[in-house]
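User: What would this chain look like folded?
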Amino acid sequence: MRRLPRALLDAAARTPRYAPYLDAERPTLAAVPPADLHALVASQEETGDPFAGRRADGLEGRCVVQVGDRVPLCLSLTGDDLAGTAKALAYAWRSFGVGRGDNVLIYDYGTSPLTLFASWCYVPGLRRGAADILGATPVCNDGLPEFAPRALHVMRFVRPRVTFVEREVVPALVRVATD
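Assistant: Here's the prediction, encoded as structure tokens.
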């Protein structure tokens, strides 16, 4: 069985959720039982810990984000976590053809990871967001349906190379575009 990377092992050993399962002699991924979202939410509700025992003691988080809409779980992200997330987003954007000099329209909520990790200016402690890494410019439009006319205006006059639209506002955007 593959051994856990040392940094991950050290962090996991400082968490209430994972520490009891790690064998100091031969720590492996198989030693930690899987937990689905329901189990994590139940743990959060039982203990009142918004991280459900997954936050390592002594590990300074620079940003706390909710794992999903209407889900009471949080993640505490370090500077390395922030940088890694932005790099992963940049990789995804590159696969959509985003490159240097491109405009990217994001019609999604400000708390969406797509928006948060787009630029260094949205999350304290993030040195470079996805757009910064690629040399692109993010144009963010908050994900409220009543902002559909503004999104359409950006599409017409800024001409983004790629547009990301939160699924719940697609009907509002289509309605404004076809009026």
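The longest helix spans residues 79-95. If you want, I can go into more detail on any region.
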